[in-house]
Design goal:
- The chain is extended, with a radius of gyration of 24 Å.
- By secondary structure, it is mainly alpha-helical.
- The chain has one domain.
- It is about 65% helix and about 5% strand.
Length: about 230
């Protein structure tokens, strides 16, 4: 069987209402509705888009205008810092795209990683740690994967204590609030506990898709030639 024949076979067995992969249409329709509703929150997107433009302009000016005029050697951590900022920017952009199309909890799980990475970057800039220790690297010593993992975990623990924990200058109220968010991140990242709660309509056979609600459900899709029959996810 050729790749083309294989694709045609998949399209044929997935046909609904005369359309290949037709059952997915309900989900994509609801994604568009969700997106239209979310885009009405213009205040959030004004702030979000202004930040994106600021970041892009800053990177452009540093690369095209500032760097060529600097004669001093580039700081040793520059090559470690900039990629972290770029990754954070791409992650924030990507999670927003995921969230506004109906999957906020999937976006939420990614933000945990962004938060942790930015805390470590901030700690390195403030000399609470440095970018080498954050990566588990001890300068002047040969690389050892096991030792790197141990040092990285120890550094992350020390940074959290000093930046957001009991050794920080944050108020108890603020630390308690951060601890709640941290706990909720863990609940969703390790076990998808919030997402599992939202899957109840799938158990009832009335789900449209896991993260959205609507008037039509997967169990009432018309199968060509058979009328309305139940189809369970």
């Amino acid at each position: 069987m050729s790749p083309e024949e294989f694709v045609k076979r998949l399209q044929k067995i997935s046909e609904s209402d005369g359309s290949p992969y037709g059952r997915l249409r309900l989900i994509t329709e609801e994604e568009k509705k969700y997106n239209s509703s979310v885009l009405q929150y213009t205040g959030h997107f004004a702030l979000s888009n202004a930040f994106k433009c600021f970041f892009l302009e800053t990177v452009e000016l540093i690369g095209a205008y500032c760097r060529p005029r600097v004669t001093a050697p580039v700081p040793e951590f520059y090559g470690l810092f900039v990629p972290r900022m770029v990754h954070a920017f791409h992650s924030l952009w990507g999670t927003e795209r995921v969230a506004i199309n109906g999957y906020p909890l999937l976006a939420y799980t990614v933000l945990r990683n962004v938060f942790d990475n930015l805390i470590l970057a901030s700690a390195s800039l403030q000399k609470v740690a440095d970018f080498y220790r954050v990566e588990g690297i001890e300068r002047g010593k040969p690389l050892n994967i096991k030792s790197m993992k141990t040092l990285r975990k120890r550094t992350e623990h020390e940074v959290r204590l000093k930046m957001t924990g009991k050794l920080s200058e944050l108020t108890q109220k603020t630390r308690d609030e951060l601890e709640k968010w941290d706990m909720m991140f863990d609940w969703e990242v390790h076990g998808a506990r919030f997402s599992l709660i939202r899957a109840q309509e799938w158990l009832k056979g009335t789900a449209l898709c896991a993260n959205m609600s609507g008037t039509r459900c997967l169990s009432s899709i018309r199968v060509e030639g058979e009328g309305d029959v139940p189809h369970h996810a």
